Amino acid sequence: MNREADQFVSAGVVEQLALLGPPALSRSTVDRREPVRGDEAALDRLWARGRLIDVDPAGRASVSPSGTVLTSATPHAEPRPEGAVLLGAEDEVGYWARRVTAEDGGPEWQDLRQAGALLTDTDAGLFTTAVGLLSWHDQSSFCPFCGTRTRAVRAGWTRHCDGCGQEHYPRTDPAVICLVHDGADQVVLARQPTWPPGRYSVLAGFVEMGESLESCVAREVAEEIGVPVTDIRYLGSQPWPFPRSLMVGFHAVADPAEPLIPADGEIEAAHWVSRQQVRDALADGGAAHGFALPGPASIAHRMLEAWAA
């Protein structure tokens, strides 16, 4: 073990914790087809046998009650539009996404927070990729080097600047999310002031420049609730395209005798909660003992579910 990681791992025995299954938005079955993104003939074939997902500016798509994102056949008689992005292929059927206006949506349209846990493995991967990639295009119309308008190339996975020749690629911002427990039967739950009343979750924060994931966990927990942690262990990860995060999950141990000091303006309240209270909250759909847990589309829900089990 390297010296940096070793400073966060104590000699004590740590409970073995593992997620009970993949986080809802980490599931996927399609082949992303990266090698063909620059092959126009191959892209034309995938477009001709393609299915199209429409996504509105709020990141919503039409989702059936059975957990399927409703697609339409690509208008293969027409040229591929610049705004269509290739999500991948399965059985030589290309899956594409495009942005539509808010007026094109309907009452059955849902976002990933609402529908993510209900989707099939295939549809979870397609919808998550579509939301993140289209959001990146919305925010990357101009070159940060020279200010010239950019254009989408390589099936929507690159933007090219004709002014200075720079190529730009989709960004992913890593964030850590950590379940802090006492090594026994208590876990820390906290809430941000902007959340709905009663909503509590585990702690999270963005990784800073020059910082390792483990260092970020230790810093964020100390900043948000004022306690040191040890035994930082990886749990799993999940894309969270709101707009472009990757949530990297950990669990760590803190001493319940240490006072919790919520960060002013960032954490409204933080409490030690028993395992039985978390089990009760999960059993009744996420609300019990005066608090509500994160929805099942989030990795936070999966982490609490694993710890409660």
TrEMBL record:
Keywords of this entry: Hydrolase, Magnesium, Metal-binding, NAD
Region (Disordered): 58-81
Keyword presence, Hydrolase: yes
Pfam family, one: NUDIX
Composition bias, Polar residues: 63-74
Broad class of enzyme this protein falls into: hydrolase
Catalyzed reaction equations: a 5'-end NAD(+)-phospho-ribonucleoside in mRNA + H2O = a 5'-end phospho-adenosine-phospho-ribonucleoside in mRNA + beta-nicotinamide D-ribonucleotide + 2 H(+)
BP terms from Gene Ontology: NAD+ catabolic process; NADP+ catabolic process
EC code(s) of this entry: 3.6.1.22
Cofactor(s) listed in the protein's UniProt record: Mg(2+); Zn(2+)
Superkingdom of this protein's organism: Bacteria
Keyword Cell membrane: no
InterPro entries in the record: NAD-cap_RNA_hydrolase_NudC, NADH_PPase-like_N, NudC-like_C, NUDIX_hydrolase-like_dom_sf, NUDIX_hydrolase_CS, NUDIX_hydrolase_dom, Znr_NADH_PPase
Xref: CDD domains: NUDIX_NADH_pyrophosphatase_Nudt13
Gene Ontology cellular component annotations, sorted alphabetically: cytosol
UniProt cross-references to NCBIfam families, sorted A to Z: PRK00241.1
Protein family (similarity comment): Belongs to the Nudix hydrolase family. NudC subfamily.
Protein name: NAD(+) diphosphatase
Organism, as annotated: Actinoalloteichus hoggarensis
Gene of this entry: nudC
